[in-house]
Design brief:
Blueprint: E1 46-49, H1 60-66, E2 72-75, E3 78-81, E4 84-86, E5 94-97, E6 105-109, H2 124-127, E7 131-133, E8 139-141, E9 144-147, E10 164-166, E11 171-174, E12 177-179, E13 185-187, E14 197-201, E15 204-207, E16 209-214, E17 217-221, E18 224-227, E19 239-244, E20 254-257, E21 260-262, E22 270-273, E23 285-289, E24 315-319, H3 337-341, H4 345-350, E25 400-406, H5 418-422, H6 427-436, E26 445-450, E27 457-460, E28 463-465, E29 469-473, E30 478-481, E31 499-500, E32 510-513, E33 518-521, E34 531-533, H7 547-557, E35 560-561, E36 567-570, E37 575-578, E38 581-583, E39 590-593, E40 596-601, E41 604-606, E42 617-620, E43 623-628, E44 631-633, E45 639-641, E46 647-653, E47 656-658, E48 663-665, E49 673-684, E50 697-702, E51 710-722, E52 726-731, E53 744-756, E54 764-767, E55 775-784, E56 789-801, E57 808-814
Parallel strand pairs: 1-2, 2-5, 3-6, 4-7, 5-8, 6-9, 7-10, 8-11, 9-12, 10-13, 11-14, 12-15, 13-16, 14-17, 15-18, 16-19, 17-20, 18-21, 19-22, 20-23, 23-24, 25-26, 26-29, 27-30, 28-32, 29-33, 30-34, 32-36, 33-37, 34-38, 36-39, 37-40, 38-41, 39-42, 40-43, 41-44, 43-46, 44-47, 45-48, 46-49, ...
Antiparallel strand pairs: 31-35
Length: 832
């Protein structure tokens, strides 16, 4: 059915596929990652809402009715069963969930298009909406808006059931959840030729049939689209992601960019979209770009006809999408690089007034003038990044201990007897303790490793930490990794402890699976804390070669060393590393992949600067990450934020780096990396033993066409660098990688950076990819004692900077700024 209040009548629309029952509960999508971004705020009055009566207003609608344009409505935690409307006259409102977590604040109703009106007739599609927002310049953040209508419970009622009806210009939706089944989110314009722009960032939108539909100029940026599983067999039909009806007079319609489509549905059961064609001037425009698509997408035929109108007559396209559902056949419309340059997030939203909500407000930040010379000043701030959307404080050890395991070994020179080395004696007992423990209510439980008299060591092969468990290592206790490669062998993979063209021969020492888990140490008053030692510097059992020597041999042979990582965490939300020493890993120390909520605090990593491929902490495909108050020394990236799949909301604060390859983003960025805040860190080019890093970088974003994508909204605040060859590196041609995945770095801000004691050959790198994909950077309060640099294809704003990049396609603009250079002190690596 059609939205009855639209600018023109709609024909009967969209044949429904089975949508299943209503959502069982508000928490039914609790596993969906939640994302946050900064937004503009209003200085006027704030009205507060609480369902329990503890605030002046019990309902959201009552607060809207009382609010004046430009005011803020703060909604306390609770479920609000009501229909909410913001009329067009109330422009500039902000409606925000008070907790910052959209799962806490839920506005829900269960109307459908066929629901009868009190005075007769039916509500229609638009009238079924739980929330209708018609006002201009509206900001909505940290809310869940849901329509829980269930077809099974209401037979005979047409099932279009809208959660959000957005129909105002310059609307911003951040960190929200929109939950429904058919027609979850309607984005539309009041008349055919009215430019109506809506920006959805960091949101989660769940549905099945046409759950993004309408004719607005709507951008879905760094969002998660959840395509529900309605039970269709592989190759059958579960639903359609989009049904746009963009008017032919409008250049832009729907853009789904830098996002992730998530689905547990069978393969080849979802279309990307179909063209809604209610009038002769409707010509749908939909673009999926730099978005991860699941196997549920019909990648061979991602678009389909609708009501007799051919999808080939619409304006459908894709560009640089990834994942198993990304189309590869020649019959699927895909943009060229030149076409993609004209179809960016900002161009969709700019209109004639230059609106740019991606940077907080239009016209803010560095923008080069046409000539490329220093131009008139523009305002600049410390950058748009806000980092982790959680309110992260120092962790605590769990209050409940499930199992205590006492040490039976004492190491001699970090080694053990032959029998123990061949068959690590603690593997079985430690895994048994981990297997026996389960989460206690809402809190995690500990499996604690303690000393027993002079015995303070454990020797083990691979272990698995489960959901709700914290592996706690007492102060003075060390968990040693096996030197026997057979302990780590992965079945069917290359032989662990050898070289091979392939990868994956060794399991990690510790694997973590399941939410609310952690690895933590007990810290004593003297500063010592629990320890894990991978012994990468010692000979692989049965050889005269160390794990690290094998890594160097692999570099020479152009093969892969089969070395175990120390800690690997996959698909585990709410994971914590706390007050733990991680030493001498044979390979990467910590990898965190595809989870929501990772905290590393008080972690001390100590591995020499010349130990190859020993990254410190690598979050990849992650959301809401904080790495704080840690000391990191290793032979590769100190931190590498890897965006093979989407990464959002990362804070790296108050850390110290020694001899590493720097604080890095990349090289994988195909899934997109956004909202990264890096502040108050120090970087030294030499480790605590005087070994100089083999690739000495300060702050670095690296990618290439091999694995590129968009990196946006990254802020480096108050960074101190000493003895580093490459203080600033922004490189879109890293390692000369080739391919079709274009790297694009934009919205990057360096606000307060000082580099001292730089070697005489020090230089910085400012390389954008091409004229169509320039580096977008602001340098504010930057002092380099060696200001040599190279650059190409960059638009750079500068304020109080000793370095002024130049090169082919580099334009520089003076910008207004404030603040000052950081005062720098470089602490020595603490004794362990």
């Amino acid at each position: 059915m059609s939205p009855q209040s639209h600018r023109r009548s709609r024909v009967t629309r969209r044949t429904a596929v089975a949508a299943g029952g209503a959502l069982a509960a508000v928490g039914g999508l609790a596993c969906i990652p939640l994302f946050a971004q900064a937004s503009s705020t209003h200085s006027a009055r704030t009205l507060t809402v609480a369902a329990d009566g503890s605030a002046p207003y019990r309902t959201v609608q009552a607060a809207i009715d009382a609010a004046s344009p430009g005011e803020t409505i703060s909604v306390a935690k609770g479920v609000y069963h009501e229909v909410v409307t913001v009329p067009a006259a109330k422009s500039g409102l902000t409606i925000a969930g008070a907790t910052g977590n959209p799962a806490d604040v839920v506005i829900t109703y269960d109307n459908a298009a066929g629901t009868k009106k009190p005075g007769g007739g039916q509500l229609g599609t638009a009238g079924s909406a739980t929330a209708t927002f018609a006002a201009k310049d509206l900001t909505v953040k940290n809310l869940t808006i849901a329509n829980f209508f269930g077809k099974a419970a209401h037979p005979g009622i047409s099932g279009q059931a809208v959660a959000l009806n957005a129909e105002g210009d310059r609307q911003v939706y951040e960190h929200d959840r929109f939950l429904g089944h058919q027609d979850t989110l309607l984005a539309w314009a009041p008349t055919a030729t009215t430019l109506t722009r809506q920006y959805f960032r960091g949101d989660t939108i769940a549905g099945d049939t046409d759950f993004l539909f309408g004719d607005a100029d709507a951008v879905f940026d760094h969002d998660t689209l959840v395509a529900r599983d309605n039970g269709a067999a592989a190759g059958g039909l579960n639903g359609f992601l989009t049904a746009a009806d963009t008017d032919s007079s409008q250049k832009y319609g729907f853009l789904i960019a830098n996002s992730t489509v998530s689905s547990t549905a069978k393969a080849d059961t979802y279309y990307l979209g179909r063209p809604w064609h209610p009038s002769a001037t409707s010509v749908a425009q939909v673009l999926f770009r730099n978005t991860v698509l699941p196997a549920a997408i019909k990648k061979a035929t991602p678009w389909t006809d609708m009501s007799g109108f051919s999808w080939k007559s619409a304006r459908f396209a894709s560009y640089a999408d990834t994942g198993p559902g990304a189309a590869t056949n020649a019959g699927t419309p895909r943009l060229t690089a030149a076409q993609a340059a004209d179809r960016t997030v900002r161009k969709y939203l700019a209109g004639t007034d230059g609106w740019d909500p991606t940077r907080g407000s239009a016209g803010t930040g560095a923008s080069a003038n046409a000539s490329g010379s220093a131009g008139s000043a523009h305002a600049v701030t410390s950058g748009p990044a806000t980092g982790d959307s959680r309110h992260v404080t120092e962790p605590r050890l769990p209050s409940t201990t499930c199992k205590t395991v006492t040490a039976q070994l004492t190491a001699s020179g970090r080694a053990f007897g032959a029998a123990a080395e061949k068959n690590p004696p603690d593997t079985a007992v430690l895994q048994a303790a981990l297997d026996a423990c389960t989460r206690n209510g809402s809190g995690p439980v500990a499996v604690e490793l303690k000393a027993s008299g002079s015995h303070n060591a454990f020797l083990t092969g691979p272990l698995t930490v489960h959901q709700g468990e914290i592996l706690v290592i007492d102060s003075g206790v060390t968990l040693y990794g096996s030197r026997n490669p057979a302990s780590y062998q992965v079945k069917g993979k290359p032989t662990c402890g050898t070289l091979s063209p392939a990868e994956g021969g060794c399991a990690p020492l510790i694997s973590v699976s399941g939410a609310h888990a952690g690895i933590e140490g007990v810290r004593s008053g003297s500063g010592s804390q629990g320890r894990i030692d991978g012994r990468g510097d010692q000979d692989i059992l049965g050889t005269s070669t160390t794990w690290w020597a094998l890594a160097r041999q692999a570099q020479t042979a152009n093969e892969n060393q089969q070395n175990p990582r120390l800690i690997t965490v996959k698909n585990a939300d709410d994971f914590t590393l706390y007050d733990i020493d991680l030493l001498n890993s044979p390979n990467f120390h910590v990898t965190y992949q595809n989870g929501n909520g990772f905290t590393a605090w008080g972690v001390r990593i100590k591995t020499p600067a010349d130990a190859r491929n020993t990254d410190g902490i690598d979050p990849g495909g992650a959301t809401d990450v904080t790495i704080e108050d840690s000391w990191i020394q290793d032979g590769d990236d100190g931190i590498a934020v890897k965006g093979g799949s989407a990464v959002r909301n990362v804070t790296i604060a108050g850390n110290h780096f020694y001899g590493t390859h720097g604080i890095s983003i990349g090289s994988e960025t195909a899934g997109g990396v956004t909202n990264v805040l890096v502040e108050n860190n120090t970087v030294a080019g030499t480790d605590s033993s005087g070994i100089v890093s083999g690739s000495s970088n300060g702050i670095r974003i690296k990618s290439s066409a091999k694995s590129g994508g968009e990196v946006s909204d990254v802020s480096y605040v108050n960074t101190c660098i000493t003895g580093v060859r490459y203080p600033l590196v922004f490189d879109t041609h890293y390692a000369n990688g080739s391919g079709s995945r274009i790297p694009y770095f934009t919205g990057i801000t360096v606000a307060g950076l000082r580099a001292v004691n730089s070697p005489s050959n020090a230089q910085s790198v400012f390389n954008g990819y091409s004229p169509a994909y320039p580096l977008g950077l602001t340098l504010q309060n930057v002092s380099l004692d060696r200001d040599t640099s190279t650059g190409q294809y960059a638009k750079i704003g500068v304020y109080d900077s000793t370095v002024t990049p130049s090169g082919t396609g580099v334009t520089v603009t003076k910008v207004q700024g404030s603040g000052s250079l950081p005062s720098c002190a470089f602490p020595a690596y603490p004794p362990l």
